[in-house]
């Protein structure tokens, strides 16, 4: 016997009933159940904006990088006009993966099976990815084959945000800017250089890719605002010390969490599901480095950024860790890295990690950061190793029949959310504890997985019912939908 | 039949190198990490590049990420290695608590170059890890070691591993490969 509802007529369970954000209880089924996993693949990943890769991985015409969007393999390509395209990596004839290389350069993908070829050369085809060559076309199809209909499937929308390339399969999806909202401040800090130069970063060559036996949401949730796990999970690396200050110094630098809540650190949780472990008013300068020249470099970068941002009227915080709903997590400071949790099954995930560096970084800085990132993150990273142990065995031990009857507890700071100046967001009540971000993530997740329509999803996102102040979105969203009045929202948690 | 002195010399050298590498495997599998660190030279360099799926003809240019410049699984010296030992010795390193069962198999040992007091050695490795119950990893590949004679034994100066996986199928690399 299970405690979950039976499938509804829509073919998917009402997963919203498994996510009780008012009580702060979430069923373990959402991490284990096959049907729910299928509903995620159907209703969430094909509608969400997903991170595909970094523009600097494909600098030249013909460059491609193989990636995944949910359960689908894709190719990020740069065509000969310099435009970025995201193409489904599956032949339209019998589905063969037309490209099994991780990266390379070509203006044409020829399928090994029967040799249909697809071109991204605009002088040969009108649409990049269009079907260009079909062996024995006349004999095989006469005049019947409409080649323009059988090109590689293209992502409906592609957005290059300062080098971060996102795509969406759904032509009805809101624009990237609307989807991201004021969470963009964290993406800015990720994509901009340490001295504030806009989009001044590039990806190091080499993406860590590895398999874990855990549900993908454990990963997203962890980076979304679970600063609570650090003290226990990362006790060993913290005891050893791998940070900028040298041996024995803290892994993020000594200033991390300085002052905590008393210094104004709060988590930021967006109604649209995004979340960050900090807030943009929480300003901590870059860490102190053991080596003087590195220290000088980062002090100078901080000062330059401070001057630039203050001139623009911007706040200086917002380094994360953070998660862009649903599965792109990142940290914009020390380290500076992007993670995507690709779903494989309810209990298996392929994790990818990219590492960013300032384009203008001198050789010494570039090499120091590279070594720090590798000893910190990825499967060999002294911090990340211990995370995987938790996610894997949390997944495994939630599979049991008895275990599944008991929900997880997400009650930290329940009803103690505080108002935020950023549209559609609230803050945690505490700098380290506080699960408001996770509650919002799963709430949004359930709305997608239950396949609510875009108008419904948009309407729900427009009012934040988590504080008495009911911070409404200030921006007029595409399609002319006006800001809703707070009274439209029922069922909000008791506010304090 | 006259004894080929040069060949005999080389066989003895190979025997000495093999004995050293087998002893190293024993120390690791017996979790005597602090003793193992003494087998590494102070200027030890360790690198394990990422391996990519690339086209025939592009393997030299693209197949592996480059030490010193790009992202690898490991690209570090003895200092970081000893931090890893310190981490294992805290007893709080959950990735290895409870401790894993590990066997390092070293085989196909050949002397690539003899430039005493240093030699270049190539071999294959198979590292087997089993932990908790059914969690089992096989890490297999080629290895190139540069060894230096120190007294009547050796130290590892440089080690490059080519792990035969592109997507790592183990959840982490919390053991010494
Ligand atoms: S499957 Fe690609 S050409 Fe037939
Ligand atoms: Fe962690």
What is the helix fraction of residues of chain A, given as a range?
A: 25-40%
- Run of helices and strands of chain B: HHEHEHEEEE
Mind describing the biggest β-sheet of chain A? 10 strands, antiparallel
User: What share of the residues of chain A does DSSP label as strand, in percent?
Assistant: 15-25%
Q: Give the chain pair forming the largest contact, with residue counts.
A: A-B, 45 and 42 residues
Radius of gyration of chain B: 17 Å
What's the story with the biggest beta sheet of chain B? Answer: 6 strands, mixed
**pLDDT below 50 for ≥5 consecutive residues: which ranges of chain B?**
none
What helical percentage do the residues of chain B reach? 25-40%
Described by the principal axes of the CA atoms, the overall outline of chain B is: globular
CATH architecture of chain B: Roll
Assembly state: heterodimer
What radius of gyration of chain A results from the CA coordinates?
23 Å
> pLDDT average of chain B, as an integer?
97
Please name the CATH architecture of the largest domain in chain A.
Alpha-Beta Complex
Ions, cofactors and other ligands present here are: FE2/S2 (inorganic) cluster, fe (ii) ion
CATH class of chain B: Alpha Beta
**What's the tally of helices of chain B?**
4
CATH-assigned fold name of chain B? Nuclear Transport Factor 2, Chain: A
| Helical run tally of chain A | 14
Overall structural class of chain A, as computed from helix and strand content, comes to alpha+beta
């Amino acid at each position: 016997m299970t405690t979950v509802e039976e499938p509804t007529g829509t073919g998917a369970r009402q997963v919203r009933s498994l996510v009780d954000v008012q009580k702060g209880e979430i069923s373990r089924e959402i991490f284990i159940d096959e049907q729910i996993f299928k509903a995620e693949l159907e209703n969430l990943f094909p509608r969400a904006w997903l991170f595909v890769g970094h523009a600097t991985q494909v600098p030249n015409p013909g460059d491609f990088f193989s990636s995944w969007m949910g359960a689908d393999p894709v190719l990020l390509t740069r065509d000969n006009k310099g435009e970025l395209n995201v193409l489904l990596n599956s032949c339209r004839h019998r589905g063969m993966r037309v490209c099994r290389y991780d990266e390379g350069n070509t203006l044409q993908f020829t399928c090994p099976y029967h040799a249909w070829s697809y071109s991204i050369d605009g002088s040969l085809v009108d649409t990049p990815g269009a079907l260009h060559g079909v062996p024995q076309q006349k004999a095989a199809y006469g005049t019947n084959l409409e080649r323009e209909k059988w090109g590689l499937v293209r992502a409906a929308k592609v957005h290059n945000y300062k080098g971060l390339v996102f795509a969406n399969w759904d032509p009805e999806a809101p624009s990237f800017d609307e989807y991201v909202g004021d969470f963009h401040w964290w993406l800015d800090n990720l994509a901009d250089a340490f001295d504030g130069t806009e989009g001044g970063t590039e990806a190091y060559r080499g993406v860590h890719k590895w398999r874990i036996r855990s549900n993908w949401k454990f990963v997203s949730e962890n980076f979304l605002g679970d600063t609570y796990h650090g003290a226990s999970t990362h006790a060993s690396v913290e005891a050893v010390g791998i940070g900028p200050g040298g041996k024995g110094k803290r892994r993020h630098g000594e200033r991390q969490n300085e002052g905590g809540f008393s210094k104004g650190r709060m988590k930021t949780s967006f109604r649209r599901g995004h979340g960050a472990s900090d807030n943009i008013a929480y300003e901590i300068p870059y860490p102190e480095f053991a080596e003087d020249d590195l220290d000088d470099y980062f002090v100078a970068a901080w000062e330059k950024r401070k001057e630039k941002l203050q001139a623009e009227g911007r706040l200086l915080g917002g380094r994360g860790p953070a998660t862009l709903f649903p599965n792109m997590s990142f940290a914009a400071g020390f380290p500076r890295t992007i993670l995507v949790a690709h779903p494989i099954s309810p209990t298996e995930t392929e994790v990818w990690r990219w590492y960013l560096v300032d384009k203008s970084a001198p050789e010494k800085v570039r090499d120091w950061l590279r070594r720090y990132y590798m000893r910190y993150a990825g499967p060999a990273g002294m911090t990340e190793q211990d995370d995987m142990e938790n996610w894997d065995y949390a997944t495994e031990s939630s599979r049991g029949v008895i275990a599944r009857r008991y929900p997880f507890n997400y009650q930290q700071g329940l009803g103690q959310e505080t108002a935020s100046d950023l549209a559609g967001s609230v803050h945690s009540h505490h700098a380290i504890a506080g699960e408001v971000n996770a509650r919002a993530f799963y709430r949004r997740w359930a709305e997608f997985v239950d396949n609510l329509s875009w108008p419904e999803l948009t309407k729900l996102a427009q009012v934040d019912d988590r504080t008495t102040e009911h911070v409404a979105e200030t921006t007029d969203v595409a399609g002319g939908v006006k800001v809703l009045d707070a009274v439209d929202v029922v069922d909000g948690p008791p506010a304090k | 039949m006259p004894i080929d002195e040069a060949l005999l010399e080389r066989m003895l050298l190979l025997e000495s190198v093999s004995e050293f590498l087998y002893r190293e495997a024993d120390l690791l599998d017996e979790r005597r990490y602090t003793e193992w660190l003494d087998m590494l030279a102070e200027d030890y360099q360790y690198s394990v590049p990422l391996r990519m799926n690339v086209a025939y003809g592009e393997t030299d240019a693209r197949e592996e990420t480059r030490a010193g410049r790009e992202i690898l699984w490991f690209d570090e010296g003895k200092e970081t290695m000893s931090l890893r030992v310190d981490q294992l010795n805290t007893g709080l390193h959950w990735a290895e608590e409870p401790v894993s069962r590990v066997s390092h198999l070293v085989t196909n040992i050949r002397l690539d170059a003899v430039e005493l007091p240093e030699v270049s050695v190539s071999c294959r490795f198979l590292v087997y890890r089993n932990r908790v119950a059914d969690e089992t990893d096989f890490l297999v590949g080629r290895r190139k070691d540069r060894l230096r004679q120190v007294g009547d034994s050796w130290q590892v100066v440089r080690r490059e591993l080519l792990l035969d996986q592109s997507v790592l199928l183990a959840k982490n690399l919390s053991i010494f490969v």
